[in-house]
């Protein structure tokens, strides 16, 4: 679905935001960040290619006039339109797909990933890829690759059901390749993974510079998520191989990588990004929009804000709260934030855990709050229990509001907090509880810590700094693009030695 919005300005720098599951169709930290960039730069024109669930999600943000178009790419809705390939094009696509799968499963064949990916991208543009992947031929290609001698995955004895599952997952993951890629300006992927696919295609076909910002480490989060996914190892080997090689290709092809913290930078360098192409840009908030929260609540309260999601590890927080309450029975835990579609089972699991631990009367799920500042004001201490984060907005917002915080040591949390909060290991209820009890019992320390936290935000993490930095990057990459007078782009299929799909 493509929604036209404002009018294009021929003189304005153009940025195409590439998103997945976030802006402009949902709320959350990354969506807030996108909205901040867009609204903070009315002098630039923005388009959005948004990877969504079904394609029927409504736009959740008020889009300013300089957002000139939003294209929704559904991962799980109706497949892209197209037709099955025939004749030689079918054979060439099958060859490219075989090379692609071999790269995912055989370390000796990884050099074939990039050329085969761009061949698949061309097929997606021609409407051939999705029909091919929904055909029995794709299943046959995968089973043949799985059964090659010497492959470790062969020892797991993949089944036909495994092949059907893995092929279906790849078909969905590759759907963003069917979206028309940007032809000018800068393509800015605001996460790794499948959101980057149109940006890689834009760079390959049109020389459009690719900017990659990772708030969390996409590949690490896929590893965490698939650890408990209900798939057999052969399926996980295919999908995780895809995400790993896609991350490496994204890092190699990005003109600039802008992690939100130094922790992400380590992953990106390990994944093949040139250190010279990495520039850390911290998230920022407007201290005027998040002023001191005022008096603490009279009843001792721990508050948390975010989306109800396994990566936020609310189970550890609830277990920690049970330990806290054994020492301070008068304490409450208030959880603010919505439950994403599909996350209802996780919320129910958390509610059941609170009841099992005898804390149902003191743990409240408040849902989405109209003003997020109310969530921070509701706590004497603001908690963050995530197992993966980038540079979390909820943390620096709470700091700007002058609240003391207890956070898990993941991503850029320690960089954000410095000495102005307590940081504990992830998945450690005892350590989290000890930190919370320590602060709950010391009002003077909470007050001093909150004041230091707000000062730290004002000095280092303001929204104006973030917007000015990215405006400069956009102009820098646009100029770099304009300095290339002529682009001769060789079709990826030719590079791969596979010939034209339609020839």
How would you describe this protein?
Residues 14-275 form the DUF3492 domain. InterPro entries: DUF3492, PelF-like. This is D-inositol 3-phosphate glycosyltransferase. With 503 residues, this protein is α/β, with parallel strands linked by helices. It folds into 3 domains: 2-79 and 178-277, 3-Layer(aba) Sandwich (Rossmann fold), CATH 3.40.50.2000; 90-105 and 119-172, no CATH class; 301-460, 3-Layer(aba) Sandwich (Rossmann fold), CATH 3.40.50.2000. The protein has 19 helices and 13 strands. The protein has helices at 29-40, 87-105, 113-125, 129-133, 136-146, 160-173, 197-206, 218-227, 233-253, 262-270, 314-327, 344-356, 372-377, 393-400, 413-417, 429-440, 443-460, 463-482, 492-495; strands spanning 2-4, 14-20, 45-52, 67-74, 186-189, 210-212, 256-257, 301-305, 332-336, 363-367, 381-384, 404-408, 422-424. Strands 1-4-3-2-5-6-7 form a 7-stranded mixed β-sheet. Strands 10-9-8-11-12-13 form a 6-stranded parallel β-sheet, sandwiched between helices. Helix 14 links the parallel strand 11 (381-384) and strand 12 (404-408). Helix 2 runs parallel beside helix 5 and helix 6 packs parallel to helix 9. It is globular. The protein starts with a strand and ends in an 8-residue tail after the last helix.
């Amino acid at each position: 679905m493509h929604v036209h919005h404002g009018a294009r300005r021929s003189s304005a720098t153009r940025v195409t935001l590439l998103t997945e599951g976030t802006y402009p169709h949902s709320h959350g930290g990354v969506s807030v960040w996108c909205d901040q960039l867009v609204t903070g730069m009315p002098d630039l024109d923005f388009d959005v290619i948004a990877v969504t669930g079904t394609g029927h999600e409504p736009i959740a943000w008020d889009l300013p006039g300089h957002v000139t178009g939003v294209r929704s790419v559904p991962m799980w809705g109706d497949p892209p339109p197209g037709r099955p390939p025939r004749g030689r094009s079918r054979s060439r696509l099958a060859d490219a797909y075989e090379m692609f799968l071999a790269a995912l499963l055989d370390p000796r064949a990884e050099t074939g990933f990039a050329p085969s990916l761009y061949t698949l991208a061309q097929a997606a543009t021609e409407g051939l890829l999705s029909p091919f992947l929904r055909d029995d031929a794709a299943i046959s290609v995968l089973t043949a690759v799985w059964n090659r001698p010497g492959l470790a995955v062969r020892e797991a004895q993949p089944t036909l059901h495994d092949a059907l599952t893995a092929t279906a997952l790849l078909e969905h993951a590759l759907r963003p390749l069917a979206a028309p890629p940007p032809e000018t300006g800068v393509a800015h992927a605001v996460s790794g993974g499948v959101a980057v696919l149109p940006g890689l295609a834009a760079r390959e076909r049109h020389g459009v510079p690719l900017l990659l910002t990772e708030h969390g480490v996409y590949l690490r989060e896929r590893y965490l998520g698939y650890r408990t996914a209900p798939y057999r190892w052969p399926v996980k080997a295919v999908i995780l191989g895809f995400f790993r090689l896609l991350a490496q290709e994204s890092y190699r092809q990005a003109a600039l990588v802008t992690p939100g913290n130094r922790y992400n930078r380590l992953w990106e360098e390990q994944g093949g990004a040139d250190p010279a192409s990495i520039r850390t840009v911290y998230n920022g908030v407007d201290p005027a929009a998040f002023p001191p929260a005022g008096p603490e609540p009279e009843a001792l309260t721990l508050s948390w804000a975010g989306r109800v999601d396994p990566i936020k590890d609310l189970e550890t927080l609830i277990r920690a709260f049970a330990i806290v309450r054994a020492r301070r029975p008068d304490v409450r835990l208030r959880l603010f934030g919505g439950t994403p579609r599909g996350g209802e089972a996780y919320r129910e699991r958390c509610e059941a855990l609170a009841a099992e631990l005898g804390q149902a009367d003191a743990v409240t799920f408040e849902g989405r709050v109209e003003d997020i500042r109310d969530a921070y004001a509701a706590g004497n201490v603001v908690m963050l229990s995530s197992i993966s984060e980038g540079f979390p907005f909820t943390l620096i917002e709470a700091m700007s509001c002058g609240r003391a915080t207890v956070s898990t040591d993941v991503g850029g949390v320690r960089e954000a907090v410095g000495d102005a909060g307590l940081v504990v290991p992830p998945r450690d209820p005892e350590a989290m509880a000890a930190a919370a009890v320590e602060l709950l019992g010391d009002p003077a320390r909470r007050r001093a810590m909150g004041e230091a936290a707000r000062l730290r935000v004002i000095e280092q993490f303001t929204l104006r700094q973030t917007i000015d930095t990215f405006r400069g990057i956009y102009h820098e990459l646009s100029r770099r693009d304009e300095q290339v007078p002529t682009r001769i782009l060789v079709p990826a299929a030719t590079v791969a030695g596979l010939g034209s799909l339609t020839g």
